[in-house]
């Protein structure tokens, strides 16, 4: 059963909504436009990732995970353009009721509070609509902007994971954050 998510308006009239197959072209354009901006924070990408076909394949994979109640792929839409993405992934039910949060923002929208507003909206949905108990996120040690977004959304730093993810072509340490959603 797919996780339901109603479109939500963000500051500036942007919309946080579920990713769609029809977004493939706009996603490819956004990733091409932000290639240099995101490269230090992302895994090494194949050239196919930056194409419409590559984004269509990734979107279909994420939507299949959504159907299995294992992920919730969202985009920040500005008309026909994509200004960012947020994903709940590795969603685990049972006694854990937890998910990971990942996100990115178009370079032209950085520094306006948009990421914080979107993350707070997603936190509310995770708690109120999906009954999750805990969200986790990780950032590179030097990604102070993302750490600020997490802190503003009520996440707390819980430690450092050595060699946690392969980012920009090498295994790198990450700061781990969590937010407990219920007392």
Automatic annotation (TrEMBL):
UniProt domain N-acetyltransferase: residue ranges: 14-182
EC category: transferase
GO MF term (any one): protein-N-terminal-alanine acetyltransferase activity
SUPFAM superfamilies: Acyl-CoA N-acyltransferases (Nat)
InterPro entries assigned to the protein according to its UniProt record, in alphabetical order: Acyl_CoA_acyltransferase, GNAT_dom, N-acetyltransferase
GO cellular component: cytoplasm
UniProt KW Signal keyword: no
Superkingdom of this protein's organism: Bacteria
UniProt keyword annotations, A-Z: Acyltransferase, Transferase
Assigned EC number: 2.3.1.267
Family: Belongs to the acetyltransferase family. RimJ subfamily.
Full protein name: Ribosomal-protein-alanine N-acetyltransferase
């Amino acid at each position: 059963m797919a996780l339901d998510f109603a479109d939500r308006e963000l500051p500036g009239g942007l919309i946080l909504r579920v990713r769609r197959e029809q977004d493939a072209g706009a996603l490819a354009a956004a990733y091409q436009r932000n290639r240099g901006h995101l490269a230090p924070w992302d895994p090494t990408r194949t050239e196919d990732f930056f194409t419409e076909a590559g984004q269509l394949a990734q979107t279909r994979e994420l939507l299949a995970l959504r159907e299995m109640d294992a992920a919730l792929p969202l985009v920040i839409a500005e008309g026909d353009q994509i200004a960012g993405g947020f994903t709940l992934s590795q969603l685990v039910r049972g006694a854990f009721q937890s998910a990971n949060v990942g996100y990115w923002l178009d370079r032209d929208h950085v520094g306006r509070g948009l990421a914080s507003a979107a993350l707070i909206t997603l936190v509310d949905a995770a708690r109120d609509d999906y009954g999750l108990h805990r969200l986790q996120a990780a950032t590179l040690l030097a990604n102070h902007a993302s750490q600020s977004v997490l802190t503003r959304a009520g996440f707390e730093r819980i430690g450092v994971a050595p060699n946690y993810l392969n980012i920009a072509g090498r295994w790198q340490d990450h700061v781990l954050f969590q937010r407990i959603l219920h007392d």
